[in-house]
Amino acid sequence: MTEPPQQNIPQDRSTPAAHDPGSTTTMTGTRTGAPVRTALAKVPEITAWFWVAKVLTTGMGETASDFLVHQLDPAVALALGGMGLAGALILQFAVRRYVAWVYWLAVVMVSVFGTMAADAVHVVLGVPYVASAVFFLAVLSAVFVIWYRTEGTLSIHSVDTKRREMFYWAAVLTTFALGTATGDMTAYSLDLGYFASGLVFAAVIAVAALAYWRGWVAAIPAFWFAYILTRPLGASFADWTAVSADRGGLGWGTGIVTMGLAVCIAAMVARESVVGRRA
Fold this sequence. Notes:
Layout: E1 25-26, E2 29-30, H1 48-71, H2 74-94, H3 100-123, H4 129-151, H5 162-189, H6 193-213, H7 219-242, H8 254-278
Antiparallel strand pairs: 1-2
Helix pairs in contact: 1-2, 1-3, 1-7, 1-8, 2-3, 3-5, 4-5, 5-6, 5-7, 6-7, 7-8
């Protein structure tokens, strides 16, 4: 779902549509071309590297959440996750441009806390995975509707104001919670297991990518559809490597998998920082 390279061209800020020049923005995407990234956008370019990093962060969020909840009191773990998320978002909102390590730190903390929140809804409140998935889908839909009615676009390339950034992170947090509930629903409620669930989500994302490249689906809905499903994709394979063999996994342990994914994410962020400085 990699978008063509975009140029950082300052845009006229007089109208919402000015952030997506060369195309007509609709609730479902653009009629012609892909959205153009503005010079002040605080999100990364949507490339293959973006999607790899996204899957790694979703996997790390899943195993890190499980590790913390089992090592600490669940309430303490949830509080620590919430404080970590708040600190990361404060830092993200404080910087005036896209900074790779700041952005991906915020994504990791969203992944950890979003996983904890979705698990708490099921474990503590006893809400079925199907019901929680429907609930988070409704919340995400509301975020998108309000975002679009306020700003006139859902393109992440136009996330260049504080208000748009607030909408963006609200959507990101909700997609992680929705993705967690959806992944648990396929693994447990549908009894597919972790590995099979990962394959299912990979296949669905591949179909969506094909639809985007063939021009059947616009860039914006294709992006958000893939963004939601990369959460259960990464989490399913991370769980598969971490859980014990009697649960259908490889038994590497949540701590080891979390550390391994953290190293991979750090390496990718370092690469992106170096490439960005050279550019």
